[in-house]
Amino acid sequence: MARLEYRLLDEANGYPVLFYYERIDKDEVSLRFACDYLVKGHGVYEKTSCAVEPSCYVVYVKRSTEEQAVDYAHTASARWGSIQIELRHFREGTTTYPLVHTFYCKDDDDALLYLQSNYLMHDGQEWEKTSAEVDEDRRVYVYYAQPTL
To answer: What global pTM score does this model have?
Structure first.
């Protein structure tokens, strides 16, 4: 088990800790390192970098000025027991992104491969990733993508 901290990218104030997890599995740390955004408490935080320190793992974030948390009406049942990754259709200039499909991963390794991939196939259509997030409010990972030609 490991310690993970989300720190605000604010050098003047000593990079204050926003959120921390005392006992977190290293596989989950890897999943979070693969995400560009964190949604927590209806706030959206953009990852700027990640670090490995002697006593913990760190994700440096800044509050997102471009994104806002959305409470989607259509969400798979929220449970961390099975790892769920929503494929959502990213469209420039909109604030909601339609759900295309929910992938259910057997383990952290499978989920990490999805989140790190640049392309996913679903129903014969290839999707190109624009970003990925961990949404703690809804207990789901989200893979934002656009269909390729």
So the answer is: 0.90
